[in-house]
Amino acid sequence: MQPVVVAYALYLAITVPLTVLVARTLSRHGKTFLEDVFQDKQALAHSVNQLLVVGFYLVSLGFVTLFLTSNDTVLDARDVFEMVSVKVGTVALVLGVMHVGNVLVFNGIRRKHLNHAIPRPAPVPPPYPGYPAPAPHPAP
User: Fold this and answer.
1) Separation between Cα atoms, residue 107 and residue 110, nearest integer Å
2) Which of 3, 28, 45, 125 could pair covalently with 38 via S-S, beta carbons 3.0-4.6 A apart?
3) How many whole angstroms separate alpha carbon 38 and alpha carbon 110?
4) pLDDT per residue as tens digits for the range 71-119
5) Which of 72, 60, 71, 67 is nearest to 87 (CA)?
6) CB 33 within 8 A of CB 106
């Protein structure tokens, strides 16, 4: 078997399970987070979580397969390990960036939900000339 084929097999044997592991972790913890945010809408929390996981799989596995090929000359075991390490390291960095992106999406959803849940106090009108300023209310 050609060394480049061994490198490709090692690359896929490492990156596909790594992608699945990251996606499952995001799914499990994201589900808990979304259920907390959408307390009254469990079905919505589950749907949003599934959509984010499917998107994660599509993007990350698409990147893994597009990044599979190489024009490097692979002649021996050292070349195999060097090529695989660069490829796996790049995939790990991309998965990390995608993970941060998912966390930011979750945080944005949470913030939007919390902003709508907190009632805003009515603004105090500015004092008019000749009228006294309203007395400040004590802090709750």
Assistant:
1) 5
2) 45
3) 9
4) 888 888 899 999 999 999 998 998 888 888 877 877 887 787 777 766 6
5) 67
6) yes
DSSP code per residue over the chain: --HHHHHHHHHHHHHHHHHHHHHHHHHHHHHHHHHHHTTT-HHHHHHHHHHHHHHHHHHHHHHHHHT--------SHHHHHHHHHHHHHHHHHHHHHHHHHHHHHHHHHHHHHHHHHSPPPPPPPPPPTTSPPPPPPPP-
- Whose tokens are 């945080």? That residue is 107
Can you tell me which residue has the tokens 């999406």?
105
What's the confidence (pLDDT) of residue 20? 92
Beta-carbon contacts of 36 under 8 Å, excluding residues fewer than 6 positions away, are none
Give the Cα separation of 114 and 33 in Å (integer): 13
pLDDT in tens, 45-80: 888 888 888 988 999 899 999 988 888 888 888 999
